[in-house]
Amino acid sequence: MIAPTQAPMVTTPWTITRIEKETEDTFTLDLKASEVEASPYRFEPGQFNMLYVFGVGEAPISISGDPAKPKRLRHTTRIVGTVTRAMGALRKGESIGIRGPYGSSWPLEQAKGKDVIIVSGGIGLAPLRPALHKLLAHRQQYRRIILLYGARTPEDILYNKHLEKWRARFDVEVYITVDRATRNWRGNVGVVTPLVKRAPFHRDNAIAMICGPEIMMRYAVQELRTRGLQAEDIYVSIERNMKCAIGHCGHCQYGPAFTCKDGPVFRYDKIEHLFNLVEI
Amino acid sequence: MRNNSGGVIQRADIGQLLSVLTEKGYITIGPTLRDNTIVYDEIESVQDLPIGWTDIQAPGSYRLIKRDDEALFAYNTAPQSWKRYLNPPRIRLWKAQRTEGGGFTVDPEDYAPSKYAFIGVRACELKAILIQDKVFLGGYKDPCYQSRREGAFIVAVNCTQANETCFCASMNSGPKAESDYDLALTEIIDEQRHEFVVECGSERGEEILKELQHRPVEAEDSQRVDERIQETISQMGRSMDTHRLQSLLASQPNHPRWEEVAERCLSCANCTMACPTCFCSTVEDVTDLTGDHAERWRQWDSCFTMDFTYISGGHVRSSVMSRYRQWMTHKLSTWHDQFGVSGCVGCGRCITWCPVGIDITEEVAAFQNSHSQKTTNSVEK
Ligand SMILES: Cc1cc2nc3c(=O)[nH]c(=O)nc-3n(C[C@H](O)[C@H](O)[C@H](O)COP(=O)(O)OP(=O)(O)OC[C@H]3O[C@@H](n4cnc5c(N)ncnc54)[C@H](O)[C@@H]3O)c2cc1C
Ligand code: SF4
Ligand code: SF4
Ligand code: FES
Description:
Chain A: GO terms for molecular function: 2 iron, 2 sulfur cluster binding; flavin adenine dinucleotide binding; metal ion binding; oxidoreductase activity. Chain A is of the alpha/beta class and about 280 residues long. In chain A, about 20% of the residues lie in helices and about 30% in strands. Chain B has helices spanning about 15-25, 85, 125-135, 145-150, 205-210, 220-235, 245-250, 255-265, 270-275, 320-340, 350, 360-380, and strands at about 5-10, 25-35, 35-40, 55-60, 60-65, 90-100, 105-110, 115-120, 155, 185-190, 195-200, 280-285, 295-300, 310, 315. Chain B is globular, with a radius of gyration of 23 Å. Bound molecules: flavin-adenine dinucleotide, iron/sulfur cluster (SF4) (2 copies) and FE2/S2 (inorganic) cluster.
């Protein structure tokens, strides 16, 4: 956590120790604190940091690493514009500014003793990976664990190594689908939502966590509701423009909520009245 | 707790207030006359005040005219509020310098504590400062705001007349400052007198008053103050019905009125810049020619700008309708959820400084009316 004496908008340089190219436009950075920190960096799955590229700007990026390994801070970024492109051009040994962690987290406490359904699309798997790490580290505390993941093409699938490992386990059910298949693809084709229809969870004792494009989240929620899941058992992660992450700049407002501090993870019943409105 | 100590200062002696505050190390900021408007700026003496001037405000219009007396504070609200001093339009947050091997160091801006004395803070403006306190000091503390706010000495001025655009009375934020000031003045002018009834709101205020030439407050003085305040309330040109407004607006995102007002709204952001409670900002990163030195700046922003909600999928609020809806819903509804108060203090600036004269009280009335019509209709059925 940020020491209360430090000015909240001031970034701290961390050093890039490893870069992994995930897909054509997506990469993962491993970082270590440049100066020896007094205490290890702690975060909850679902939280994010503001990442600063020298001279270019800041972007909110979820923490995608294992919360049990607080010495190595991990982020997965997709290149979509100015800051993320500059971030993608950084090299090992160079520095990146970090401030955080910010925001709410996935309901891993509430999920204890329940079936857990994770629905993710594209880069939306990044903020859910820490949740999966934690769920699997405490596997016996949960009932079924189901991961549904959709990517554009087989080449766009993130975290292949982890997905393979999880797939090989008997205590996790992993379903992957792609919008467009390539020649060697033998899996599902189509959007992720039909997978929700078939997912084997118990509707009275399950919790769902969703992150992906808004349109995908809308369909996923609809499908889960049809399957009988209550609104208060569904959690979604919302994306908004963020300039400060500390509730001062106003950019991330989503109805009454500041997405940076009340979100990005929201319990669905709290935002149901906003979720299907456009331009909120 | 209301502090009842006070005194009455004659017009001839009021200048001492400025000199005593200056002696104590305060930078005195007060109303001055510039470019046909009132501008809060550094003042040295009473001569810098807009002596004998008053403002005439109406939707989309602002004018200063001369009065037939020498009143010091006979105007209502200046175009710019005190937020310009507490939360400046543009500040540097930090500087960074590249080091060998791809690293960099960060040098946070040092905001030396400022000692401002604000002279002439209206009740509505004082309430707006308390609202911005919640934004900038309620959670994460903004060090710049804090450095300016904590030392600030507040001399409130109670309004003894109101403009057509004023509606603070209906927002419970004026026209009399009730607390959170150091000194509050009420200017009394009639055939026999030109004097200031002073109330102390803090120990600091009492200390200052002790050093000023004054006489005790008599019952008639308090009575004169009350009369002026009552008169001001009766002059107020507008009012806002806030009953159930929070839930009413929250429940009407698709009301046709949003489209109607959007047809007039130019999305110019004037209202948000002039509003004393609006707090939104953006950041800007700059580098020098070598690229080795970078700085991060923060500046005021507005929810009326297109880029405000940009994310990689596009602009969330691309229509003017959605941006006007955000502004008004935030001010009057979601602000309550966020900070436990309304985001509007009824100062009327957004009405005056709207180029097409959109009037927030009129918009609220439209929502309240269509709601009460609906309820009556359904009762009839
Ligand atoms: C909580 C949260 C978690 C996230 N997690 C991840 C993650 O784990 N991985 C990931 O890849 N992405 C994540 N994102 C999305 C990511 O933050 C954005 O993709 C990123 O900010 C894009 O930055 P950019 O500069 O590359 O893109 P751009 O599209 O160039 O710029 C986006 C930013 O620049 C500003 N901007 C753009 N154009 C203009 C203009 N003309 N004038 C002024 N300003 C402009 C926008 O206001 C915006 O702030 C997350 C977002 C949020 C809110
Ligand atoms: S009305 Fe708009 S500019 Fe003002 S505080 Fe709200 S979001 Fe920010
Ligand atoms: S919304 Fe308008 S009337 Fe209300 S405080 Fe802001 S500028 Fe003043
Ligand atoms: S990102 Fe600035 S208020 Fe949330």
